[in-house]
Amino acid sequence: MTIAYWCVLIALFLPYVSTVAAKALGGGFTPKHNHDPRALQATLTGPAKRANNAQLNAFEVTPAFAAAVIIAHQVGHAAQTTIDLLAIWFVVSRVLYLICYLADWAPIRSLVWGVGMALIASFFFVSA
Description:
By secondary structure, the chain is an all-alpha fold. It is 87% helix and 0% strand. Helix 4 runs antiparallel to helix 5.
């Protein structure tokens, strides 16, 4: 297993960090909320809502990241170190994205999102 593949595993679990944050900030760790967590999500406000939004975005972007890593490995034109570093930086960008979302730093969050998307595209460019 390469470092990049381990980063895919980490990225697959990162949305759940946002889920836990949304529930913790929104008071959702109760039996009542556990029966219908999506109803709780619909009522969230402030930092809890932003954590939920970060969760949704993470679920949206992770498949593209996983595909990019797999394709870069399959094509085989890029050095493994390059693929690993891109993957590490992507995971770092996703952690920063969550921090920016929770802190309500919208312009910085958008910039970090753009960096993450550029990193996904980079897997294709370095493999071409």
